[in-house]
């Protein structure tokens, strides 16, 4: 352990270790070496160009821009210093003086909007504590928050950029060590409620079509000191309050829950799509919530992303996507940019079949590697993710158009389309009627699942 210092896990909201702490500069351009990123086609070798994402190209009846509804994460782009459990942040942010002040918070806004403009991303997402710091009191915190929201509103109006969803950071501050709505302290619950009220106000004001709950610390470290039933009841009460408040102020945006099984908690109550749906049903919340599914969280839950998407879709509850990927060799939320075409194809296949997003989008909840510390790396990272999804979209559209997989799967279940199968599906069969039927037929003959043949076919499209 020599030479290794104690560390705090870098928080995705509001805690930055800056490698370079130059004082705020009044610059008109924060990324002077980066041009506006445009589509140049697959033949281009310009690293500052899209090679596949052509925003205005129409695929399967819609422009790529409208299919994707790409979002950038304020926390990763503006607040993630790229620290890790073993070392400080490395990210160069010459516009940021490292201070937790309103002035510094306001100074980040133009940087972020220049980034959105140059990368040609239409949407963004933020936690309250990404955009503004904790104050000396809760009211001071809210006051600074709404000042930065004013600034964001001005920049949105001047640029046409839009909020995809807002959220509150109920996991970074030490007061949330035991959770927020699941904290054993009712006062902490109240603080969390106050933050959420203000974050919903801000999301409403900024026209955000969605609001996300990621229960960062809504879980437990150990059951030895935990009343799980009370905690889950409290979580549900908290979400019901949010639903009631939205109704009261006329906020009609979509609420999302973002499943994640663990990290930072040992077990999080929103552990995967199925657990979230069960919780929402049990507490009468399913009409008010959809899911925001994140690829790396699916991996941590021991599922594929497509599994998580299908579970949500089958319940009519797929709302939005946090686009990233994990590292199969590491067991934590590495939040890497999505570069795996197989993965993006599988996501886009589901999205196309669902008929696309309504309120949601593909939010890059992703960060650069600690070694990619220069501002221009932000661009390379997002370009790669956008191109990977563009390729996934084109491949998925072709697969659906050809219909080969759909036909195979349809045929695989065709015994349910008529005869005894249709009676089973319509509910008119019983154990007794099936007993009589089974005794009369020859033993069932099975057809091959052809998994390998289909995997070969999928590879032919890539
Ligand atoms: C953390 C989550 C978080 C949410 C928003 O793992 O992905 O970033 O997306 O609170
Ligand atoms: Ni996320
Ligand atoms: Ni995550």
Radius of gyration based on Cα positions: 24 Å
H/E element sequence: EEEEHEHHEHHEHEEHEEHEHHEHEHHHHH
Summing up helix and strand content along with how strands pair, one would put the structural category as alpha/beta
Mind telling me the CATH class of the largest domain? Alpha Beta
Question: Which short descriptors sum up this protein?
Answer:
462 residues; two-stranded parallel sheet; 14 strands; 2 domains; TIM Barrel; alpha/beta; binds D-xylose; binds nickel (II) ion
Strand-helix topology:
Elements: E1 38-39, E2 49-50, E3 58-59, E4 62-63, H1 64-68, E5 70-73, H2 74-79, H3 102-119, E6 123-127, H4 128-131, H5 138-159, E7 162-167, H6 186-205, E8 210-213, E9 219-220, H7 228-249, E10 254-257, E11 267-268, H8 273-282, E12 289-294, H9 295-300, H10 305-314, E13 318-322, H11 341-354, E14 362-364, H12 375-402, H13 404-412, H14 419-426, H15 431-440, H16 451-461
Parallel strand pairs: 1-2, 5-6, 5-14, 6-7, 7-8, 8-10, 10-12, 12-13, 13-14
Antiparallel strand pairs: 3-4, 9-11
Helix pairs in contact: 3-5, 5-6, 6-7, 10-11, 11-12
The protein binds D-xylose (XLS) and nickel (II) ion (2 copies).
One nickel (II) ion binds near residues 214, 258, 322 and 365.
Task: Please characterize this protein's 3D structure.
The chain is α/β, with parallel strands linked by helices and 462 residues long. It has helices at residues 64-68, 74-79, 102-119, 128-131, 138-159, 186-205, 228-249, 273-282, 295-300, 305-314, 341-354, 375-402, 404-412, 419-426, 431-440, 451-461; strands at 38-39, 49-50, 58-59, 62-63, 70-73, 123-127, 162-167, 210-213, 219-220, 254-257, 267-268, 289-294, 318-322, 362-364. The protein folds into two domains: 2-402, Divalent-metal-dependent TIM barrel enzymes (TIM Barrel, Alpha-Beta Barrel), CATH 3.20.20.150; 405-461, no CATH class. Helices cover 44% and strands 11% of the residues. The strands form four sheets. An eight-stranded parallel barrel has the order 5-6-7-8-10-12-13-14, surrounded by four helices. The protein has a two-stranded parallel ribbon with strand order 1-2. The protein has a two-stranded antiparallel ribbon with strand order 3-4. The protein binds D-xylose and nickel (II) ion (2 copies).
């Amino acid at each position: 352990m020599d030479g290794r210092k104690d560390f705090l896990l870098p928080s995705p909201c509001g805690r930055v270790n800056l490698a370079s702490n130059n004082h705020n500069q009044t610059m008109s351009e924060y990324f002077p070496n980066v041009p506006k990123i445009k589509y140049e086609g697959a033949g281009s070798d310009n690293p500052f160009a899209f090679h596949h994402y052509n925003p205005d190209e129409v695929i399967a009846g819609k422009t790529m821009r409208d299919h994707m509804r790409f979002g950038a994460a304020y926390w990763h782009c503006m607040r993630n210093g790229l620290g890790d459990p073993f070392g400080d942040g490395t990210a160069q942010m010459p516009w940021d003086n490292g201070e937790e002040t309103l002035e510094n918070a306001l100074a980040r806004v133009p940087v972020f909007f220049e980034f959105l403009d140059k990368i040609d991303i239409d949407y963004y997402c933020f936690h309250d504590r990404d955009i503004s710091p904790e104050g000396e009191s809760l009211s001071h915190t809210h006051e600074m928050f709404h000042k930065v929201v004013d600034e964001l509103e001005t920049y949105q109006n001047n640029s046409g950029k839009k909020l995809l969803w807002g959220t509150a950071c109920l996991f970074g501050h030490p007061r949330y060590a035991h959770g927020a709505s699941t904290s054993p302290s009712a006062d902490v619950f109240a603080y969390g409620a106050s933050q959420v009220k203000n974050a919903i106000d801000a999301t409403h004001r900024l026209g955000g079509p969605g609001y996300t709950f990621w229960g960062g610390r809504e879980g437990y470290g150990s059951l030895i000191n935990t009343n799980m039933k009370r905690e889950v009841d409290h979580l549900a009460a908290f979400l019901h309050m949010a639903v009631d408040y939205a109704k009261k102020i006329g906020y009609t945006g979509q609420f999302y829950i973002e499943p994640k099984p663990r990290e930072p908690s040992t077990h999080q109550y929103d552990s995967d799509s199925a657990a979230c749906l069960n919780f929402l049903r049990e507490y009468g919340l399913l009409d008010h919530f959809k899911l925001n599914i994140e690829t790396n969280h699916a991996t941590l839950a021991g599922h594929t992303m497509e599994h998580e998407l299908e579970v949500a879709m089958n319940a009519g509850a797929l709302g939005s996507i946090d686009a990233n990927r994990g590292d199969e060799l590491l067991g934590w939320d590495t939040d890497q940019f999505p570069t795996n075409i197989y993965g993006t194809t599988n996501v886009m296949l589901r999205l196309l079949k669902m008929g696309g997003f309504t309120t949601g989008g593909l939010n890059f909840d992703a960060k650069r590697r600690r070694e990619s510390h220069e501002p221009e790396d932000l661009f390379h990272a997002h370009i790669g993710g956008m191109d990977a999804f563009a390729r996934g979209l084109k491949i998925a559209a072709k697969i659906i158009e050809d219909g080969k997989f759909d036909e195979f799967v349809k045929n695989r279940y065709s015994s349910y389309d008529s005869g005894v199968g249709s009676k089973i599906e319509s509910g008119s069969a019983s154990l007794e009627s099936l007993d009589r039927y089974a005794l009369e037929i020859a033993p069932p003959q099975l057809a091959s699942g052809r998994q390998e043949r289909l995997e070969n076919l999928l590879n032919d499209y890539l």
